[in-house]
Specification:
Oligomer: single chain
Distance between the termini: 40 Å
Strand order of the largest sheet: 1-4-7-10-15-18-20-21
Order of helices and strands: HHEEEEEEEEEEEEEEEEEEEEE
Number of helices: 2
Strand content: 25-35%
Shape: globular
Largest sheet: 8 strands, mixed
Number of strands: 21
Length: 173
Amino acid sequence: MSFTSRFTRLSPYARGQLRGYHRVRIGPRVKLGGPGTYDLRPGSAIRAGTRIWVGPGATLTLERGSAIGANCVVNVETGIHLGPGSQVSWGVQLLDTDFHAITDDDGVVHPHTSPIVIGAHVLVGTGVMILKGVSLGDGSIVAAGSVVTRSVEPGVVVGGNPARPIGRSRDWN
């Protein structure tokens, strides 16, 4: 049996421990790349098949109880922060960068990266794309398949492309 197949059969906690993250659950086939900082707090989780890149000088922070679902793509050029108890479903993309600088007709070069901040106890549905500069307020919910281009107030439910308010929520579980 190869090391790779033995490594994928380990418990998520053992995978986290082997990567230097005490009490962090890391699923099989998770790719953690880039020279940036991974601030993975005890009690956080990254599910199977997720690919993460943290660029130079950037930081990915997962607070206690937060989780990134299976098969997500996370690209961090400045910073992405998941607050305590926040849950990101499967197939989500978190992109704090446009990957390219854009110059408008007046010659103004627009910033191509800006941090993403996800507050405490936020629920992000499957297939969502969250773009640079977005903040999701505490207790907010993003409906499946949404594209979030603007910040969301606490307790607001958003959905669609682009995501717009569709309701309010007191709690979710």
